[in-house]
Amino acid sequence: MSIFEEIFDRRNTRSVKWDMLKEIFQSEDVHPMWVADMDFKAPKEVNDALIKRAEHGIYGYTVIDDDVSGSIINWLEKRHQWSINKTWLSYSPGVVTSLHMAVQAFTEPGDRVLIQTPVYNPFYNVITEHDRIVVKNPLKNVDNYYTIDFDDFEEKLKTGVKAFILCSPHNPVGRVWKKEELLEIARLCLKYDVIILSDEIHSDLIFPGQKHYPIASLSEEIANQTITCMAPSKTFNLAGLDASYVITPNKDNREKLDNIFNKQGFHNMLNTMGNTALEAAYTHGEAWLDELVTILDSHASYVKEIFEKNTKLKVIHAEGTYLLWIDCSALEMDSKELKKFMIEKGRVGLNAGVDYGEEGEHFMRINIACPRATLEEGVNRIIKAVNSI
After folding, report:
1. Which domains does the chain carry?
2. How far apart are alpha carbons 302 and 275 in whole angstroms?
3. Is the pLDDT of residue 1 over 80?
4. What is the mean pLDDT of the chain?
5. Helices of type H across 169-250
6. What is the mean pLDDT of residues 93-113?
7. Model confidence at 364, in pLDDT bands (50, 70, 90)?
8. Phi-psi region of 278 (alpha: psi -120 to 50; beta: other; left: phi over 0)
9. Residue 162 CB: number of other CB atoms within 10 A?
């Protein structure tokens, strides 16, 4: 049996996804398909490396050496054809942490920060918790496919925007931005001197026929205007190990960012197990990832086909990630009614679309990174509930 078919009991493991159902959904009788982690074991090589490190039994301060940084450099070159320098790297517990630091490093209280909605909900907090102002460039949904309104994008930049947080690939709509789109984003940000804070945590989860381009890889000029946040956490299901990194080619910008990290007590370190897992995943995880992507692509096609064949729900065409964006507007419910319906009638735990912005009012987000049997259980619950109306 493939590791991607095996069902593991995650209850009573302090799992946010499985052990917080009562707190999140006010019921333990829901099938969890929400928060973005996977119900798959990490690659065997990662687990073996962690076990070997644990057997040593001493967990003192841990250095990030050339083997760790080299695994990142080699991974980016091989998977994304992006050549980076070791000196460009800074380390962080997570991408959201890095974005908080970057907003503080490159903007001031009262500054305007642009996002493309509906978008990963921590982006709002990253801006507002530091007394910056959220500016929205809503994406356009045309025939179940999201695109960028570049006229609006430029008009918003003209209002004095200081930073733009790019979600690439985009969570929750599943777009993998084309090279031409990224070049136009960069052209406009350069024109108006707007720094790009690029969240590329889903960059390895790209469906066949698509390609992820790190925006900073497109030219030296763009690289100097960009702070790129990446991690192996979504790729290899390592979110609980708190290991991510930031790539900042511009020396002055890197010093500004590292200064903020230092002021907040983060001193360019990773915890012992995160350090170990990152290196093992990037060194040995490629075959595991290739199989995973094939399965996720199949899962996405299955959900889209079965929902549209058996219900009024529409699944937005996804090009990457393991998160699908479901248009539930045909159910004619507002966001509160929709969330309640999915919990009480569907008995599934999904993410409410409105949490990603008002543009998600009639949407739900579903996590498909689970064995097919687990996926089918959740999908069938939703179909049964929808068809009972």
Report:
1. 16-43+286-386 (3.90.1150.10), 47-284 (3.40.640.10)
2. 36
3. no
4. 97
5. 179-191, 220-223, 233-236
6. 98
7. very high
8. alpha
9. 21
